[in-house]
Amino acid sequence: MTATVVLGAQWGDEGKGRVTDYFAESAEFVVRYQGGNNAGHTIIIGEEKFALSLVPSGVMNQNAVPIIGCGAVVDPAVLLDEMEMLRSRGVDPSKLLIDSAAHLIMPYHRALDEVLEARRGDANLGTTKKGIGPAYQDKFERAGLRMQDLLDPGHFRALLKNRVAEKNHVFTSAYGLEPFDAEVIADHYLEMAETLRPYIADTTIVLHNASKAGQNILFEGAQGTLLDINHGTYPFVTSSSPTAGGVTTGTGLGPKAIDEIVGVSKAYITRVGSGIFPTELFDEDGVTMVNLGHEYGVVTGRRRRPGWLDLVSLRYAARINSLTGIFLTKLDILSAFNEIKLANGYMLDGEVITEFPRDQRELARVSPIYETFPGWKSDVTGARHWDDLPSEAQSYIKYIEKAIDTPIRWISVGPERQQLLER
């Protein structure tokens, strides 16, 4: 491994935390390149369970340098809480670096997120109301505040005063919100800045030098391909680019430096929040997936919507990201089923299609075309080699990789670190 990207190939929640943790064992740098604390990664080590939303999952490798890149948005209070949680549980986050150009999530971003989602009513987007979208909105309106602004208190106060004046005008007149006090916010953020100051750096230089020296770099994406702002199921998407293209813009390291792009996919599929979901299950099979797979959001606690694996969307993810391999997770959950289904095409207006529609009006009209496979009805959690898997499981996996023209190189058969096999 020199420079490897680990990203979600579905709607997020694919198990990227444990995958990142696996690859991070040999990484010297682990980089979060987009998103904020609206996505959670879970890592299970023995009896210990760690839920992270901002600090890269690779922090569990104490030899690696965890980096939050400029493509991420940072809530300083959440970040400090996570760092303290890690310290209290014996994990040292002192090597963490935060890019100086990463944008800050402010209190008015969270307030705006809540009021806008409430006003959408039944057409809500299912946001986490953490202020992520409004923070990115300010970033692209060139009205955001960045980590580097915290390093100069006078400069930060002046910028914040102007921003709050603009926000208060809109918030009070358009949304009936109470005005924000710029001085109160500044005092709070500058207090946190003193703790964060040693961690703020130009990480583009750090990563360039690491790449030039041939050191191992792991890029960790949040959310998933189908939630990408450019390539996802818009408007039910996140506000950043979890796809491979987001790595270069979110870190400052050029695309020629990337060697491997690993897509993480469950052996089935889930989605949290609103949006079209062609293979969604509303029957007992779906209930089984949720219960056995513990399908509840790490950050929100919301129940995930389950469905059979959708190869149309997975093929799309492989193409959009130039995936070099798939890490298939939660194969063990499918041991509960007598029959297992895969959607390898859609029926749209009387015609068979095999490419994922980017028009949501078309996606809303599709019905999945399923292939049915016999289940294996046996415990696979002890499998550590390909030959340990039942022949039915092997056939299922081979069908997937042939259909998406991408090798499945890793398979997890349980939540623990060691419950996986590499082909």
Can you describe what's shown?
This protein has 423 residues and is α/β, with parallel strands linked by helices. It folds into three domains: 3-98 and 200-261, Adenylosuccinate Synthetase, subunit A, domain 1 (Adenylosuccinate Synthetase, Chain A, domain 1), CATH 3.40.440; 103-196, Adenylosuccinate Synthetase, subunit A, domain 2 (Orthogonal Bundle), CATH 1.10.300.10; 264-422, Alpha-Beta Complex (Adenylosuccinate Synthetase, Chain A, domain 3), CATH 3.90.170. Helices cover 33% and strands 20% of the residues. The strands form five sheets. It has a ten-stranded mixed sheet, sandwiched between helices. Strands 14, 16, 17 and 18 form a four-stranded mixed sheet that branches. Helix 3 (107-120) packs across helix 4 (132-140) and helix 5 crosses helix 6 (182-196). The radius of gyration is 22 Å and the shape is globular.
